[in-house]
Amino acid sequence: MNERKSREEGERGVAPPRWADRLLEWFCAPHLLEEVQGDLHERFSRRVALFGERSARRQYAWEALGFFKPFALKRQQREYPSPLFLHPAMIRNYLKIAWRNLANNKTFSAINILGLALGMVSSLLILLWIQDELSVDNYHANGPQLYHVMQRQMYDGKVETGRFTPGVLPDELKQQFPEIIHAAGYTGWDARMTFTVGDKINKESGHWAGADWFKMFSIPLLAGTPTTALNTPNSLAISRKVAEFYFGDPTAALGKSIRIDNKTDYQVTAVFENLPTNTSDKYDFLLNWQDCITRNPWMKDWGNNGPHTRIQVRPDADVATLNAKLKPFLRKYNKELGRSFNAELFLQAVPDAYLYSNFKNGQQDGGRIEYVRLFGIVAAFLLLIACINFMNLATARSVKRAREVGVRKVVGAMRSLLVGQFIGEALLLTSLALLIALGFIYLILPSFNSLTGKHIRLQITDARFWLMLGGITVVTGLLAGSYPALFLSSLNPVRVLKGSLKFGSGARLFRQGLVVFQFVLSTLLIVGTIVVYRQVNFIQTKNLGYDRENLLYVPVEGELTTQSAYKTFRDELLRMPGVASVSSIQEAPHNIGSSTGGVSWPGKDPNVLIEFAQTSVGYDVARTLKLKLTGRDFSPAFSTDTTNYLINQTAAKRIGYENRNRTGGPAGSPVGQPLTMWGKPGKIIGVIEDFHFQSLHTQITPLILRLSTDPGSQNFMIRTQPGQTQQALASIEALWKQMNPKFPFAYRFADEEYNNLYKSETVVGSLANYFAFLAIFISCLGLFGLAAFTAEQRTKEIGVRKVLGASIANVVTLLSTDFLKLVFIAILIASPLAWYVMDQWMQHFQYRIGVEWWVFVAAGVLAILIALLTISFQSIKAALMNPVKSLRSE
Amino acid sequence: MRRTYLGEFEEVVLLTVAVLGNGAYGVAITDELEQQTGRSVSISAVHAALHRLEEKGMLSSRMGDATAERGGRRKRLFTVTVLGSRTLHDIRAVREQLWNSILPNTLPAISI
Predict the structure, then answer these.
(1) Which of A36, A41, A42 sits opposite B47 (nearest CB)?
(2) Which CATH number does the domain housing residue B33 bear?
(3) Which parts of chain A register pLDDT below 70?
(4) Count of domains in chain B?
(5) Which partner for A45 in A619, A668, A733, B69 could form a disulfide, CB atoms 3.0-4.6 Å apart?
(6) Do B44 and A38 touch (CB under 8 A)?
(7) Does the predicted interface ipTM exceed a cut of 0.95?
(8) Where does the MacB-like periplasmic core domain start and stop, copy by copy (chain A) (predicted)?
């Protein structure tokens, strides 16, 4: 009609104001609109002729507005108004029916709600965990402009990628590139130092960082300014925790001096807020960068890498161009580059670095993001399993509600209304489940936190949290409710009410498919759990080539750093009853990170660079670590040992010796052969059998051990007699207090330190455990419900069978086989899938156990057993029923 | 019998519908009213009154013809119902009875 009108008026060229027409069409009741608008238009066209267009238009608008009166606004009531879907009476009816259905079938309702609640608990926990993982290092205001400068080193046919850069790089970058506003070095290694203020002595751990640090990162300062926080060599920035410990109050600490390692005084120039838990840089204090270079003169050399470099680029900077310019940057400064050895710089965004930390052949290759994805999938699986329970039980029991659907349809419910009703019911149940889930989460969050090492809280004040809850409820409700809703609402009312309703095999097949799907997921999780558990166990118990039990580290510091005190302390230790042997080492034996190319020997090809891992050690190192050795250990009996070396088998092979026999001595053995390291010629005095001095994710590389000349760089490694560790510790502490009173006695156990290396695997292992258990539990809940339903349906059949002579065993088998068939199919489908997934995961380990066939058999048998147990309760109950009772009811 | 109350404007509108006979619809009634009473009448007020009268059962309506100047929209044509007619008659009877009850020379003279 509108079109017609505008066409006609378009021909005449005069039309009333469009907006007024629109407004009128909007507010005027539809049944009045035609006459009202018609009258107005009639008057309008007369006025155009009489007074001209402008006046007519104005009056038209005025008159149209005049109809803004109750009579015109009020919509016409229809004679038989169909109640709105959201009409209060209907809602009340829906709620009542829903409640009656819940109350009438307590078992099924409990199974449904409990299953949904468990599914939601696990997926909510995982979502919280993922949210926390994603937030790590992602809270800096300058986040999008912050980058790690990464280095890719290519030598010996390998590509190594890491954050290690020359210590002078940050300042040089800032000078050379106008697009870099801030640049700061950061020592990747953790410094544990002794702080002394008056009589308060404690160990603190921290780092050295460039002066721009606080300008780049959003770490609130409680005292001091970002500019002055780290700008002089004796500046010291401390956390609130440290400030409160030594000075009682953050502001009181400013300007005070702290003696570090009983040697140098530093002045507190800034106090920063304790770092949030979702940060990957952990430190309680920061020292000035100049101080770091003074302490480590090797950092001035462009050829030595170690510390990290962080930069902040200008917001308008083109990172791709900067990356291209950075790539060859090091060549200008390091003339060694380009022959057998090459190095490139590139950028990685700070917020990405935590989740995407792995590099393979110089290219980004996953990292923690894989766990985030993995658990995201697990969360979805668990929720899906719970939803399937709901769908299965709802459709299986649809016979009971078919009559309700029939009656509703007869009195005029449209299909869409019924769909709405059933989905609404599912949403209601889901909300109920959500409440229970929240209660659960509140209870288990503390243990979840201690398991994952996180500090997750329910952020009730955060809108996103509620959004997440709402989202998960709606998704679950829709997922669980949609199929039953569509299925039930499709029933034919005539057939339902006549009582001749027969469900086709389609619905049953679909249900069976869902059960299979559930058990595929459960079996996947079981296999995953077993494999992860075995691998974690393999790591924890693997013979690394050295004995990490009964071994403890104590840093050499304070008074002990002089040669004579070091020697006295060592001699005293060796005299103690519980101590088996004593040595020292610069880096922990499970984590020797530094390496060098500065090793040569007669006949070495000058064009090949071989990188050797290296560290300095004390006497008796092989004996203390219980390393298998050909040749001899470093020993005080040989004064020339300071230029002698121990190498591992890989190094011997790499150099070219064939370490054929273990007795040592004869020709062909490297023992006694000359070797030059860092320009100091010496001899190989022994070859140690390969041991894992780095994470099992990486392969064993060549290693050189040299004798330390600087006790201050060392940590004592003390091997105690088995079972006497506690007594030994007590006497070591007494000795320490006597010889080194200014420093707290800080020791660490080798096995604990080692296990920390694989923390994420251990956490993943135990999480997988719990979630697999949950998955199978929820699936079994569903199975239990279905079994109960089938048993109920077949009561008569069972009664007849029993009357005709079937035994209990017959009946149980009859009821169980149907379900076991499904579980069996599920296992068949799940096994290859599980094998593929686990094989992919295992690729991350250089040293791993295989995924063996018996794992699948075990998982399968487990799944069948659990399923059988679940079903048997119902089937035995049905089989035991007295046929007189079950047949009497008609 | 309790007569339904009619407002003055409603009474006038009802009478105008009667005046117009078969052609009583919004615009015509408004024009006629303006002409007869000499006061300006808003079309929305007329519609409101018609609506109320119909609700009270004094008018009935049907849809009439469409014309071009109405943009093809139909008119709603009103006719007075029996109830409407009786009400008008009642009002008139009451008035006349009242007029007849006034003694001569009680009202001040209005003609010069």
Answers:
(1) A36
(2) 1.10.10.10
(3) 1-13, 78-86, 337-340, 500-504, 658-668, 889-890
(4) 1
(5) B69
(6) no
(7) no
(8) 109-327, 544-733
